[in-house]
Specification:
By secondary structure, the chain is an all-alpha fold. Helix content is 56%, strand content 0%. Helix 1 packs across helix 2.
Length: 61
């Protein structure tokens, strides 16, 4: 049976809630790149991703 990689927060490498660090680990990316992309996308989306970040932080793990 195939094992599916599940998303989880990475609170050891996380700065706030561990969301970006968890995303970076899940997709095997650099955590700094994920943080920069998240900030740029949040600014481009007029802050809408801030709500998404908080929801992921509350719901995950």
């Amino acid at each position: 049976m195939n094992q599916v990689a599940r998303f989880h927060l990475d609170k050891q490498r996380g700065k706030l809630m561990g969301v970006c660090a968890g995303i970076a680990e899940h997709f095997n990316m650099d955590v700094t790149l994920v943080r920069i992309l998240w900030v740029v996308a949040t600014l481009a989306g007029f802050g809408s991703l801030l709500l998404v970040y908080i929801l992921i932080g509350i719901i995950a793990d």
